[in-house]
Amino acid sequence: MTIAADSAADNAADNAAAASALLPARANLRLCLALCVLMAALTLPHGSLQSFAYERHHILLGEWWRLLSAHLVHLGFQHLLLNLAGLLLLHELFLKDVPFKHAAGLLLACALGVAAGLLVAMPGLTGYAGLSGVLHGAWAGAALVLLWQRQAPGQESGKGARAWWAVALLALALKLLAEALHLTAPWSANLGAPVLTLAHALGAATGVAYAIVWRSVRSASFGKALPQVTRGPAFD
For the whole model, what pTM was predicted? Predict the structure, then answer.
């Protein structure tokens, strides 16, 4: 009876932990789906690009919403589909393990970081649209935090977890390097405008900064290093 009771208690604890781990994934999936709907709603109507894209002149005249809306509007249907697929893939690989407030905060920070970076670094840039810079930032930020403290799916050891997320960050670094060397894929030229690889780099830098700031704040709050966790949210 004792063994049975202990087994039932363990099963209940495991079920509760599994249910708790699903909460951020469900909330983050709803967030990503809502962004998909919003991107389609802003992109498909005729003339929406002129109203919502990044345009330096209009931003400096006070149309500050373009700092965010520029990432939601796209150049065309193919551009939209690529970023919709990228967002959903990013959710499956990284964002589903991140608590909702940080998934939303990371995406917002990357959107503002990319737009602000373009304002400062490229004063000659007249227009920009698309979510890819934000996606690179979320990739970098989420993978970095998961590298620090979460085990990868199917991994039991801390070394295996670190290797899992280190590969994701290495792949991102290699992609950014290839773009810096102008080794982009052939289809990138078919989107209706040149790919602005600086936006990808700015997004990745913002994502890394978000992860570092969060880790520093949390470490200072608890007065110790972040704990390693094996299940549940990657960080809170």
Answer: 0.81
